[in-house]
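A favour, since you know our structure tokens better than I do. What I am after is a single protein written out in full by you. Could you add the entry underneath, on a fresh line?


***
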Amino acid sequence: MLIWIPHYLLRTQLNISVLPHMHHLLALLLLVVAVCKLTALIVKRRETLRNLEAFPGPPAHWLFGHVQEVIKSRTPIKKQCCNVTRYKYFQYPFAFQIWFGPFVSFLNIHHPDYVKTLLSTTGVYGLLVSSGQKWFRNRRLLTPGFHYDILKPYVKLMSDSAKTMLDKWESYAQTSESFELFEHVSLMTLDSIMKCAFSLNSAFNVRLSSHFSGTNAYIKAVYDLSFLINLRFRVIPYHNNIIFHLSPHGFRFRKAVKVAHHHTEEVIRKRREELKKETELDRIQAKRNLDFLDILLCARDENQHSLSDEDIRAEVDTFMFEGHDTTASGISFILYCLACNPEHQQMCRDEITYALEGKDTIDWEDLSKIPYTTMCIKESLRLYPPVPGIARKITKPLTFFDGRTAAAGHCCICVYLEIWVFDPLRFLPENVSSRSPHAFVPFSAGPRNCIGQTFAMNEMKVVIALTLRRYQLIEDPDRKPKVIPSLVLRSLNGIHIKIKPVDHQP
């Protein structure tokens, strides 16, 4: 007797019987992939060890490498630098290898002649910027945007942002209450760069306690992206793209990127419509001050080709995300250094008072009248460089002055120096000329130096001058910063000072 069994039931039974075997096959496949990946990493590690044989370094854990030293960075940086100094000047005077886990390595370079070789060669490229002919073309097109004729009107915009911040400090001046600098300065530099890049006012005029209003989604996105980029750099597992993508911070990052890109694209679209009738910069400038976006939209190469919207968006993002955070770090630590060195602070104040001649603002012409203040700014950048390390990737073997050769791979230049005495006279012209120019590279050097370094230095001068004219900076001995070397130099416990009004207001 034949029994009819529906086909769909037969298929279901077969699927159920095969399912356990499929699980086994999938597990076996994943195991094979994992073994192949691990084998490739081991081969790569052996190759890296051979390539770095000429550059021995401090002992590394077989599994963690030097990650434990990174974890110890949650102590003040000066204590770390004592250990690094021992490695550098006694055992490894030019460069040494450093490992993040068992497979990721960097060549840590700290000798000026090594730095010169790396930064001046064309066989390397920056890890955070484009490479090849595209980079050279874009750099050439962007350079006019940082000409002094363009930067000159920005000084007033920077002054306005600084004054808004200083007005908000009045309550601290009256109570002598210690307060955290970086949050205030970061919002101020973001406000300034919004005006210079887009000719837009940001959310800086809202109360700092509420940070941002709902109508300023772009400002919040930029602020979130700066925070998340630094967080990802500090959290080792987040270096893996998959782990970061699946994490809550990865979701928050993608959301912020979407908001920022949408805003930038809208601004570019609207500005293109405004510029349809005016395609020459001199005609535009006759009507209003140029901003960074004008320069990008009107830029043309020798073939009269312009930047694409994607290129423009990328450059604006770089200007926004890298510009305001690094400048905020620099200004915050400059103010902290001056608070800790009242005699130098007073010399700067006297110089600024004389240069401004009773004015309550600072003009373009005044920036060249404060040389001692400029030396103090540079000395602070030496002690607390906003970007503590400059990453470069070597695309072909690179031989240094002592004959040692680094193979293709990554290099990390340490910007930190180990002389911790605050002495602005290091930057007197006669002292600068007697040492290697590559001993002080807070803005990098060579063809890939920071294109916005004049913009950043101008903003630092403006903010420091207006702050010292109005307030006396006082160190808070109970709240010294615990500095950590991340993507941008920061302090775990913030940067705190006290202020009080200057006795002799003009």
